[in-house]
Write the structure tokens for this entry.
Amino acid sequence: MKKSIISQFIFTLLIICSACDTLLEESPDGLLSQNGFYTTETNIESAIIGTYDLLNEIYVQRQNYLLTDVASDDFGFTKTNSDRVAFEIFEVETNNNWLLVNWEDHYSTINRANAIIEKTPEADIPQEIKNKFIGETMFLRALMYFRLVRLFGDIPLIVEETNTLDALEVSRSPESNVYDQIIEDLIFAVNNIPSHSDQKIGRADKGSAKALLADVYLTKASTSFGNESDYLSATKLAEEVINSADYVLFPSYTQAFDPRFKNGVEHIFSIQGLAGVGGNNQSILPTEFLPRAQATNTGPLGERTYSNFHLTEDLYESFEEGDIRKDVIVKDSMYIQIDGVWQWAEIKTWFRGNRIFTFKYIDYDNPLRANSSVNYPVIRYSGLLLSHAEAENEINGPTSMAYESINKVRNRAGLPELSGLTKDQFREAVYKERRAELFAEGKRFFDLKRTNRLKERVEQAKPGVSIELPKHLVFPIPQQELDINPNLAQNSGY
Amino acid sequence: MFFLGIKMKVFCPFKRVGPSFVFNLLSKEENIQLTDNGDKIGRSKIGAILSMSPTTPVFNEDGSYVLINDAIGEEIYNPVAYANEVTDNGTSLNILGNIFAEIKLAKGLTYSSKVGADYLVYKNNFYLPRNIGEGQGVNGEAKISGRKNINLLNTNILTYTTKLNSRDQLTLTAVAEFQRFKSENSSIRVQGFANDELTYNDLSAAAIQDIPASSGEITTGLTSYLLRGNYNIHSKYLVTVSARLDGSSKFGEDNKYALFPSSAVAWIISNEEFMKNSKYISNLKLRTSYGITGSQEIPAYRSLGLMGSVDYPFGDQLMVGFVPVRVQNPDLKWETTKQYDVGLDIGLFKNRISLTADYYYKKTTDLLLDVPIPRTSGFSSSLQNIGSLQNQGFELTINSVNVKPSSDFEWRTMLNLSFNKNKVLELSQEADILVGLAQSEPYGIIRKGEAIGSFYGYITNGIYQTQEEVDNSPESSTSEPGELKYVDITNDGAVTPEDRVILGNSFPDVAFGLTNSFRYKKFDFSFMFQGTFGNETLNLNQLNIADRGRTNKNVELLNRWTGPGTSNSVPKANTSQLSRVVDIMVEDGSFVRLQNLTVGYNFEASKLKWCTGGRMYLSGQNLFCINNYSGYDPEIGSPSSAQANNLAQSLGYAVDFYAYPTNRMYMVGLQINF
């Protein structure tokens, strides 16, 4: 008896000890190691999808429109949360959380891109496929840096993957260096990314890369390190996109924002939203922008909205007589169904601001406001046409090509064609057209900054708000980053 | 809360040698969402209670919940609706099994081995109905999550005891221990229910099934080898020397093992000849020890660079991608604490009064903390060995039998006092480490030379009364009359983040516990006070209630600044200034609490065969708390996840952000002895 017990225990010990060797090894079953991940085509493809992941957060959930539309002459914030009102009145403090989350998401995306760009060359796959992958990833990296450099000015320029905790305390690189990197990335993207017809739905393609690069040149032309040749580059790229015949304007303006037509002929690059998939992927755009009726708690399709952002009176009044784009804007009251009856209902009064709202972002198939399939347009064909008209006018004056581009956009808006303008008049016409065509699309702050009209426009549209230059041309670097990284300095004035 | 415990012990008939088997079954069911600070909807009930307008009723006339504040047309978060209608129940089943055997191999040499398994299954059911808050937007949401843990432990002990002569004894022990822990979890979430009938019991009844499900796995391993010698000389001198080699899977490839030696010497003075006949002193022992211990209390896989899954929709198709989720840290190693301790045990009057006093000094190096890293890296935090820390203090315990036990009456008192001071000695990085997030400001700091749980923010000095005062201040461009004056500490003519200073810390100077127990015939009675002094609590509720435009406010806002001379402490309404952490939010967290009061009655049941007797008792916990704190309760377990990161939670900051106060509990009990 005694013996058998002893032998049983020795047996138990043997079983346990045989596992001792591997006991201290860590090999997670539910997570993949970074080492050796970027070696196969499917893995790199999935890493690229992962690099798109935060775009929804950056452009939609984290309220890109606060930084680019509310911080302009176009929009106001309807509620009283001081961290968001701050953008409307240009009193953004260094500890503003919206800045921090934006900063964080941009750099996370950049790090994801850096890993792919750095490791893909070592993978054992055909060079052509490697270049295609790297090109698409460089487009995303450039997209991030182009936003960062316009929002914050000089920024840390990181092009290598973070795989050690050493040397994380980076310093800021001059804007011009950032632009050089963006242009280098986009040129590689243009040359290697799949063409519009070969690329998968919703992904960046050759057209996206060219159109983004055209916008980069157009913006760079207005900087202290830009010059005439940047306009030339912008024109050339825009013409290539126009001549590719890959894109046309939708017959109707509203189709450009209707999820039933998403990723359509007019869309050069869009942030993708899909209802019913949870998380950041179901777009909240309708709940942010749609108005709510005073008479009921329900919005136009019987659901509540947050109605966070209203148009300024200045934007409302800026539309030309007969502009059908104004049809997506309502003021004071709206025609909606209440208890099954179509009727005019007064728009709810909010704590701040007026009662002018836009119906631009609406998903008729998904009446749940915080759960829609609305895409957010980053580059639309009409925007590219206007960039083309602007750049062409800067170099050659209002040529027939410049008129053709702007008039395409005006035709669809139901407006008469322009002709016989001076170079300056044409420039003003393009500025005006951009505002009417692209409002609420994350362009306005950048356009005002680029065209040196931020102070004049904002102070006129928002009485009581005063703009200091150059302070307000950039946002402050998030204080949390300064606290942790002694090599970062704050923007002047903050 | 429902609790059931069954314990079975099966003993083998062998007395000295043989296996024993313990089987323990524990089932527990609890409602989580009431006390959860930041629940699954991301909202706190205490926050909702504090911020709900007093003019808004809980129910409409038709009996439905009020979910809109009519006065402002705003959606509100009705805490009663959430408390009653949201389901968030966890059930767990815990099975423990042990097999144990001890074998005597030779005279004085025994070998024992234990194999234990601890098995836990947990399931959480969550349902947010269609008519409440976020549930309206998604037509109801159900979530089921589950976890299965298995912990296997094998301990092997070889002990050799020998008497060197009639009075000296030597014991040598060798231990080898192996532990493996594996946890698997999964969860699934659906939305879009046609009604609130089936809820989480039929997830297929939901229209939206496309939300990605999740699952995960964690495996950790721990090995320990220990050698220990105990030497007892004449029962007067006790010497213990030990060395242990611990290996943990959680650290970097080359840092898994660490060696932890320790030694202790005790002198039992009362056993010396010259003390043996002392009238008063019945026990006197002087102890001293020095040793090194290690900590591996960190999550698994933190030294590795790993990829995690994310998703993004392209057109109408959601696609899964992989991204780096953590930067690797192969240098991650054990946190070690060197501790020196001197102690004295005294027993007086035949041990009617016993006293234990200890002084200790601890130095912790390679402190393991999940610290923020520059976000430009693509990550926001990383678990690192970040520096060293010292703790020194004094602990005193006094036990006294005030009235000698007799058949009728007995009275005992126990008092313990502890004094501790901690200080950060070194940081591996140049910059201070900022901790936590109050809206968007950190509220804590780890700085060399300061206590580790320090609060950090701005000093204020009253309210700007006039525009003239504002114009002559360092904040002339940003402030208005009626707003708080921030002090320009650096004296550089502007209030900047450099003007933040340390505002206190959550560690008490003194903590105490005082228990008195009485027995009179068959009745027993006891009460226990607990308290701390000299600790601060950060009242973040002030920040939030003050900032939100349309919610209920603190009563003190009635005395707010409304013009020059009206108030020098409460700012005007509608100011954005309070988004900073300021000195007035750091409050005295000292308290004295009647933690427990129990009355019992003991009975005998000599006539019953199956029962020998028992005890009935009535007990109350947390019956009152004396403090100067303006919130509900200054004693905060740890900050809620909404306002903290892992770092703030691991440092135990007392941050009250709608924290659920300590429960008051009454219990009636019956204990039967078989």
Observations:
- Chain B touches chain A through 101 residues (CB under 8 Å).
- Residues 1-18, 35-42 of chain B have pLDDT under 50 and may be disordered.
